[in-house]
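User: I'm curious whether this sequence folds into something compact or stays loose and floppy. Could you predict its structure so I can see for myself?
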Amino acid sequence: MAKLHDFDMERWQSTYENRVDYNLSESGVHPLTVGELVQLSATGSIDDTLIGYGQSNGTDHLRERIAALYKNADASNIVVANGSAEANFVALWHLIEPGDEAVVIQPTYMQSIGVIESLGGIVRPVWLREEDGWQPNPDEIRAAVTGRTRVIVVTNPNNPTAAVMNAAARAALLDAAARSAAWILADEVYTGAEIDGPETPSFWHPDGRVIATGSLSKAYGLPGLRIGWLVAPGEVAERLWARKDYTTIGPGDLTDRLASIALDPEVRPQLLARTGEYIKAGLDIIEPWLQDSGVFQYQRPCAGAIIWARYDLPVNSSELVERLRAEHSVLLVPGDHFGLDNFLRFGFGSQAHTLEAALARVSDCLGAVALR
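Assistant: Here's the prediction. I'll summarize afterward.
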């Protein structure tokens, strides 16, 4: 196994997110309490839930509810994981052998790149283009995917740009995968958090070489449950489950039960509507602030409670967010954690008063930097 590189963004967040006054590094919305979630359910109680070892690939009930989110999937296609991070790790661990090539659509959540390289794989990037609305160029996809490509990794809706892949790029990716017999690993954790358009269609297809991952963290406001999942062809799902025996084994009874409540057909729409309300309220605050700043250029997000904004200041993005943290107690994610400097990722899914107060402190910092 090759050397494991530090996961800069996760280490940055885990070190400081609970040690600042205002955390705008989060890409989801303000979370629910256990009580708020349970009150949405007709069952109304979890008091009889054992706090024990759960079914290691997820209970049949939870897997059936996850499968219902995907066309032509059933419980045999589902493996429940401890967050989408474990889901993505297990998938790449299954797919990548030393020397395998992986085409990764970037910028992206950098876990996949670190895991691929640690397994001895070779990353071939295809970059989203700012001038094209953060879409990849279909010709560049076709050129990058060859007979040596083992897997194409795509985050859709995207993190950090919050763009949704358009039909031309999607078709090019699917055609390239079919031509080269490559797998697609589709991280789809922001599905359900779309701002204006319909829910983003999954790359999952029961007859394709596709593994899709999802979770309750972003669109559902339930990151603390640490419930994610993989959707894969039945025989592959069995092998992914076997690999989980070497990682976290499985979710606990309590989180499995709460996840089943969240995905109840009567509860899920309420959670997604709540997320939509937070996103729209946050946009109403942050967009005028960005437009009035004189510093930022951005494209309106399509999904998720994040904005990817380019700034015009003579300072490195990591240096800028360190000043924000140390001098103003506000946490943001720097662009160079995604391989693109002079950008910041703002999370705007906080409660309104929190977001307004945090942005006021960011304004103070930007004014001080501009005067230097």
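Summary: The two ends are 46 Å apart (CA to CA). The chain has twelve helices and 13 strands.
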